[in-house]
Write a structure and sequence with these properties.
Length: 122
C-alpha cells in the first residue's frame, strides 16, 4: 500500500488554464442569459426573487447579493451589459449569479462544449 504524499498539486499553468476555461464558460453562459434578460421580463423577476431569498440567508455572500440587488434595479439593457462585461467585478458577480437554471441543462452543456472546443483549438 502506498501512502498518500499529500494533496494533489497541479502545475500553475494547468490551474490557470482550467480557471480561464471556467471563466470563459461562465461568460458564454451569461451571454445567453443576457439575451433572455432583454427579451423576457420574467427572467429579471426570477433573479430579483432569488436575490431577496438569498439575502435572508446569505451569510458570507451577503455583500455580493446586495450588489446584485442594486444591479437588478436597473433596466434590462443595463443588467444585460453587466452580465457580459469582462471586468473584475462582473467576473466576481457571475460566481454568485441569481440566474441559475435560466438556461436548461441541455443548453448549458451545449454552451460548455462549444467553449471547450474553442479553448482546446486555441
Amino acid at each position: 500500500m502506498v501512502a498518500a504524499a499529500g494533496p494533489l498539486r497541479y502545475p500553475r499553468a494547468v490551474v490557470k488554464n482550467r480557471h480561464g476555461l471556467a471563466e470563459e464558460r461562465s461568460l458564454a453562459l451569461h451571454r445567453e442569459i443576457a439575451k433572455r434578460v432583454r427579451s423576457d421580463p420574467a427572467v429579471l423577476e426570477l433573479a430579483r426573487g432569488r436575490v431577496r431569498d438569498a439575502l435572508a440567508n446569505a451569510g458570507a455572500a451577503r455583500p455580493w447579493y446586495q450588489r446584485w440587488g442594486e444591479i437588478l434595479r436597473g433596466s434590462p439593457d443595463d443588467v444585460a451589459l453587466l452580465l457580459i462585461d469582462e471586468g473584475e467585478e462582473a467576473r466576481a458577480l457571475r460566481q454568485t449569479t441569481p440566474f441559475a437554471n435560466v438556461v436548461s441543462p441541455r443548453e448549458r452543456w451545449r454552451i460548455w462544449r462549444e467553449v471547450a472546443e474553442r479553448w482546446d483549438s486555441a
